[in-house]
């Protein structure tokens, strides 16, 4: 009789696992209850119960289930691995790492536990240890795409981009149908500014029958970086066909000129791009000969009377990024400085400079609309290029400036012979005409002190033309 119950419980357990894998949650729950009545102390059923709770979004129930099961079976590696994954989702990276390490100790032959531990160590900034764990996971399961992708990320974190690229290439050879590996290889080439290689990786994937919206989006970015804007627009359009409701993809298409109507980059796009860009942001801009912070500093020295040393502030830095502008003006009698940005990782880098009185993770339009502070000086370095029509933001800034206040900002410039007021500039940015900027500023109530043509930076050894605008409240006699 006991043997028959055991066999029935095992059969039900397999059936429950199949139902959870195929996301038939409603059918899995009653069968799981029946199986647990037959085998109430089964660690495997505890795993499935926790997994089912995760599928249902009930993280607290999943954690309670795993806590009880681990208390009953502390040496069960699978339970530790499941709880490590859950703790990672809950943001408890230290606890997750401890569980993953226990899982590896309890079962040295489980590559998934080694890979999970490697990813958690990477989250904690222990990239060298992460590489060792993920190397073992890949050695144990060389055809697993996710292990290869994780190892590549760890190698990049260690500064070994060449080995990371080789790891992805080996993974693609072993699993040629992996969309994730193909996209990771393209993204790594983009991050290394090897845009020709990124396009080649994308074309190879398409030739192999592998394609998704992300792949086309990355190909478009690489083509745009090579100055091939028409081809980039075609790639973005293909991305839109595959993911028509994605705001990131829609903006790429709109900014490339393939679709009209988008007047600014969506917040989801900006946050995703700059969170992924934060650790390379300053190095990349410096390599491009980025001039905007210095140009704004020079404009302030020309326009502001700082000879008496009186402090001017507070100062609002819109789209502050990693704080390059605050660094450029840090020796001037300006402040306190408040920075606003959508990217938490960019803000974390800005906080390390200790130049801001306050940093806010927020949309600049929301801050201008809801914060009634009067700002004598508002700055926007290389930010309004992500907004097409400037009328609303100029009106919002004007409302926050006191008499005599200044707004200084940069935009990329449309060619002088272009009839449009503003238009796509490639890489999901916008360019603006000088006449339009002047007209929009006047319509918003500003006095236009200066709109100067400047080189903002260099890309592919070519200057990127832009405008540096210095605006004040109407009636300001500066």
Report, as a whole number of angstroms, the end-to-end distance.
96 Å
The CATH topology of the domain at 274-473 turns out to be Rossmann fold
- Radius of gyration computed on alpha carbons: 27 Å
DSSP E strands, number: 9
For the record, what CATH class of the domain at 274-473 applies?
Answer: Alpha Beta
Low-confidence stretches: 1-7
Overall helicity:
55-70%
Oligomer: single chain
Can you name the CATH architecture of the domain at 274-473? 3-Layer(aba) Sandwich
**Average pLDDT for all residues:** 86
Number of helices: 23
Judging from the principal axes of the Cα atoms, what is the shape?
A: elongated
Fraction of residues in β-strands: 5-15%
Structure explained in plain terms:
The protein has 478 residues and is of the alpha/beta class. Among the domains are: 187-261, Serine Threonine Protein Phosphatase 5, Tetratricopeptide repeat, CATH 1.25.40; 274-473, Rossmann fold. The chain contains 23 helices and nine strands. The chain is elongated.
Note the main attributes of this structure.
elongated; 478 residues; Serine Threonine Protein Phosphatase 5, Tetratricopeptide repeat; single chain; alpha/beta
Topology:
Layout: H1 2-21, H2 25-38, H3 43-55, H4 59-72, H5 77-89, H6 93-106, H7 111-123, H8 127-140, H9 145-157, H10 161-174, H11 179-191, H12 195-207, H13 213-225, H14 229-242, H15 247-256, H16 267-277, H17 281-287, H18 292-303, E1 315-318, H19 324-328, E2 337-341, H20 344-352, E3 358-361, H21 364-370, E4 377-380, H22 391-400, E5 406-413, E6 422-426, E7 429-432, H23 434-443, E8 446-459, E9 462-473
């Amino acid at each position: 009789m006991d043997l028959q119950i055991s066999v029935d419980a095992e059969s039900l357990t397999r059936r429950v696992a199949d139902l959870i894998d195929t996301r038939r949650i409603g059918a899995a729950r009653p069968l799981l209850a029946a199986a647990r009545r037959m085998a109430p102390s089964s660690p495997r059923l505890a795993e499935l119960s926790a997994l089912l709770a995760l599928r249902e979004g009930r993280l607290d129930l999943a954690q309670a289930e795993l806590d009880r099961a681990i208390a009953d079976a502390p040496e069960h590696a699978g339970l530790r691995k499941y709880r490590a994954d859950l703790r990672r989702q809950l943001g408890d990276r230290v606890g997750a790492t401890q569980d993953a390490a226990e899982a590896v100790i309890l079962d040295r032959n489980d590559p998934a536990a080694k890979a999970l531990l490697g990813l958690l160590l990477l989250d904690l900034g222990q990239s060298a240890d992460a590489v060792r764990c993920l190397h073992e996971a890949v050695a144990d399961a060389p055809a697993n795409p996710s292990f290869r992708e994780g190892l590549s990320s760890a190698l990049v974190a260690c500064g070994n981009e060449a080995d990371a690229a080789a790891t992805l290439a080996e993974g693609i050879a072993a699993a040629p149908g992996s969309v994730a590996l193909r996209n990771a290889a393209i993204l790594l080439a983009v991050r290394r500014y090897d845009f020709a290689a990124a396009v080649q990786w994308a074309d190879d994937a398409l030739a192999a029958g592998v394609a998704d919206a992300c792949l086309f989006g990355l190909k478009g970015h690489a083509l745009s970086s090579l100055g091939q804007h028409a081809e980039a627009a075609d790639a973005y359009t293909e991305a839109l066909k595959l993911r028509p409701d994605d705001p990131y993809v829609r903006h790429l298409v709109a900014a490339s000129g393939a679709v009209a109507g988008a007047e600014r980059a969506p917040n989801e796009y900006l946050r995703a791009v700059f969170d992924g860009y934060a650790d390379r942001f300053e190095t990349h801009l410096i390599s491009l000969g980025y001039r905007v912070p210095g140009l704004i500093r020079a404009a302030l020295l020309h326009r502001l009377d700082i000879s008496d040393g009186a402090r001017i502030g507070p100062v609002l830095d819109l789209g502050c990024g990693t704080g390059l502008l605050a660094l450029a003006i840090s020796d001037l009698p300006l402040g306190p400085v408040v920075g606003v940005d959508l990217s938490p990782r960019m803000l974390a880098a800005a906080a390390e400079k200790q130049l801001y009185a306050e940093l806010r993770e927020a949309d600049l339009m929301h801050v201008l609309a809801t914060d009634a502070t009067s700002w004598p000086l508002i700055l926007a370095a290389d930010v309004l290029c992500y907004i097409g029509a400037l009328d609303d933001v100029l009106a919002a800034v004007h409302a926050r400036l006191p008499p005599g206040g200044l707004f200084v900002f940069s935009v990329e410039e449309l060619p002088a012979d272009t009839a449009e007021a503003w238009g796509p500039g490639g890489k999901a940015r916008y360019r603006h005409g000088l006449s339009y900027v002047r007209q929009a500023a006047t319509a918003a109530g500003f006095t236009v002190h200066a709109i100067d043509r400047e080189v903002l930076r260099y890309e592919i050894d070519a200057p990127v033309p832009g405008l540096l605008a210095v605006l004040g409240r109407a009636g300001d006699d500066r």
